[in-house]
Write a structure and sequence with these properties.
Elements lengths: L1 H24 L4 H15 L5 E9 L7 E9 L7 E9 L7 E6 L17 H10 L4 H9 L4 E10 L2 E10 L4 E7 L5 E4 L1
Length: 190
């Protein structure tokens, strides 16, 4: 009886030691972290229009841990898209992450346009039909429920630097609007 208990005790110690040894010497690569991150993003945000990993940083040279960040866009082809920044720790935090809503509630720079810059395509889409002076776009969307936006960031346009071009297209027609990033002014609707 004592020998069987002793052997069971040794087996338990060996098993624990084996798992500790594997954990101690297991090594995750950046590719492993990225692969798991992509899979988790697809699972967590299945209805996303776009999922884009923006950074993968190793915590330290001695560490086998990574901090990963991604942007997730929802409703990118609608008048009111959303943008979320997701951050995960891998592997130590097992993808327990944080989420920051960067663009939400179909509102952007409404109170202080002079000190606000449209940084994301989602914001440009929202501004294209919510700003003062965008009535032709509002009317176009109302008359064309199938209208979808596409966004382009222009380095130069008509003597202005950094301009958002938002093209609204439907099965019947299209309309483009240009918004100056520097002061959020409407430059042109065509």
């Amino acid at each position: 009886m004592k020998i069987s208990r002793f052997l069971l005790f040794l087996l338990i110690i060996a098993t624990i030691s084996f798992f500790l040894f594997i954990r101690l010497f297991s090594y995750s690569t950046e590719q492993d972290a990225k692969k798991f991150f992509e899979e988790d993003l697809a699972y967590t945000y299945p209805d996303a229009s776009e999922r884009k990993i923006i950074s993968i940083e190793k915590v330290s040279e001695q560490s086998n841990e990574y901090i990963l960040k991604a942007w997730v866009s929802k409703g990118l082809h609608t008048p009111c898209p959303e943008k979320i920044e997701v951050q995960y720790g891998y592997p130590s935090r097992n993808f327990i992450g944080s989420e920051i809503k960067l663009v939400k509630s179909c509102s952007v720079c409404q109170t202080d346009k002079k000190n606000c810059h449209i940084l994301y395509p989602e914001e440009a889409i929202i501004a294209s039909h919510t700003y003062e002076g965008t009535e032709p776009i509002k009317e176009f969307i109302r008359k064309n429920p199938d209208a979808t936006p596409s966004v382009e960031f222009l380095e130069n346009f008509d003597g202005y630097k950094y301009v958002w071009k938002i093209n609204w297209s439907s099965s019947k027609a299209s309309l483009a609007i240009y918004i100056n990033q520097a002061d959020n002014s409407i430059l042109k609707i065509e």
